[in-house]
Amino acid sequence: MVLILATFGVAGILCVPGLAQTAVIAPPTKAAQPQESAVSRLRALIETAEKFAEAENWDAASTKADEADVLVADWPPEVLRRPDILPLMERLRALERQFEEEGDEDGLKTTEEVVVLSPAELRAERDQVLAAEQGAVFDFPIDLNDKVLTWVNIFTGRIKGKIEASLSRGSSYLPMIRQVFAEEGIPQDLAFLPIVESGYINQARSYAKAVGMWQFMRPTGRMYGLTGNSWVEERRDPVKATRAAARYLKRLYEREGDWYLALVGYNAGPLTTDRASQALGTRNFWDMARSRWLRDATKSYVPQMCAAVLVGRFPERYGLNITQGTPYAYEAVEVDRMTSLAVLARHAGTDVERLKALNPELLRATTPPGRYTLRVPPGTAQATARALAGIPSRERLDFKPYVIRKGDTLARVAAKFKVGSEDLLVANGLKASQFKAGRRIQVPPPAAIPIDEADLKPAAERAKLMADHPLEPLPSVPGAPGTDPGPMAKPEPQATAPSTTPVEVGKPATDLPPVPSKVTTPAMPANAEPATSKPLVKHAEGEPAHPRSHRVKRGETLFSISQRYGVELAELRKWNKLKGNKIQVGQTLRLQSK
Asked: Measured at the alpha carbon of residue 52, what is the angle toward residues 227 and 203, in degrees to the nearest 5?
């Protein structure tokens, strides 16, 4: 068995999928007949995702692809292999490969194989963890099983340098994060989640356009108060995004009643746990992780988080060298109108890079039009305020001058400089009727990161595009008996909300949801092998229980074969020495390691 290790982000953003093997639920003995509404819904989702992908709107494309994945999650293999559905599944997988390739083109993703630990190595790793933790109390539950131990080994071995860099960056933000989490009443150990999400990089941006330290997708960020336009992106603001992440995690816990399932919802969406729970009849994460109802990345997400907490709490005990950064501290100054950061820095006795570091939500080297609360270095607020009062209006901006030419339109000039039409007018105090040839205007600087096209549209159109629309109820599963509309029709009872009692920063929380007093360790006798996840494969009647090989037939894909026999794609590639997913009709594939 292999692990696929993926690294997102030039600076080392970590996203490592692919730990657990897949368990396949027994398919029905006869092929189920899909309801036409379900197939039509699948086709519509895929076509919409493809259109978004053509327009390079990866955020929307990924969202639609995820909806399609949820829709087909419980369709039996016989249905997925049907001639009318198999091509749709191929198009869906092609979309997902396109998302990955988009990340590769941007230099945001590399992969390598990592071998799973042997039983002896697992025992040694467990002993090291127990020695390092020394009976420490955690406010986040940790199951010290083989999956978690494997990730501790990876974090402190193969990618030790990345974890050291991540924790070194995080040292500046951890006091602030713990304080916010204490105020919101969630486990302070969740402050180590950015190790898995972003490496504590505020500018982090995934291939699917999740942004910031907490990797919020745009719709979720907006639900929790994070706004964005062509001037600011609050998902990059460490304080605002941390507050939003705390409230989102708290809401997920209230919904699920379990921190592991809350993390599944954070990683893959709440519908994922609904589907898996209904199909398996359990709300235990480890049962879900042994099934085909979670993606590989989601199966690994909780073990990674457990390992991040263990290593993050006591990095020096694991041999990690952490450089303590300057705590994220600042004072605030009200800026009454748009002002260049270079001008502010020059008059306030600081530098532009320092202002950018304190205000990472700013997309351009300027404050946005109108009033804005600017963070400045501690002890400089009064000097900055005095400087602002004395800066003449004509010296507030150091924008690029441009003379409107004959034939220029507002939209054309705005598109040329990657700024919204309204923003260009506001920056120059103009009305649309005043945008005429011969007028000299000031053009704002380019953004530090790509700005979504939706943010460059007029405000009214932008509001319409970004309006929240609830997901349509999912159609019945193809071939399912009766007309039960599925899990959407039966909301889960909510668990008791976590306590909101403030907790002193740096001390274990005591009034939070029930957690173990120490690391939970499954019994592991000295002479026994640690428990590992084995695929629980069942097969249709007349099919060999454990075939050793399979001859590829027309219309089959590596994905459909992996689903049929309940093995991971990574396993199939390894056993057959495949670098990708390309196979040929008539090719014989090994289905076992030996």
From this structure: 40
Which one, of 236, 238, 435, 427, lies nearest residue 328 by Cα?
Answer: 238
Residue 346: count of CB within 10 angstroms of its CB: 16
37 has a pLDDT exceeding 80: yes
- CA distance linking residue 468 with residue 219, whole number of Å: 8
| Residue ranges making up the domain that contains 421 | 400-465
E strands, 85-215, are 109-115
How many other C-beta atoms can be found within 10 angstroms of the C-beta atom of residue 306? 28
pLDDT of residue 347: 77
Residues 50 and 197 in one domain: yes
Q: Which residue has the tokens 């649309």?
A: 432
271's CB contacts (< 8 A; 6+ apart) are: 70, 471, 487
pLDDT in tens, 128-154: 999 999 889 999 999 999 999 999 999
User: Which tokens in the block code for residue 455?
Assistant: 């943010």
**In CATH, what number is assigned to the domain containing residue 458?**
3.10.350.10
Share of the chain above pLDDT 90, in %: 32
- Which whole number is the average pLDDT over 117-138? 91
Number of domains in the chain: 4
Distance, CA of 247 to CA of 252 (rounded, Å) = 9
76 compared with 168, residue with greater pLDDT: 168
Closest alpha carbon to 165 in 302, 297, 315: 315
Give CA–CA dist 94/273, Å, rounded: 25
pTM of the model: 0.60
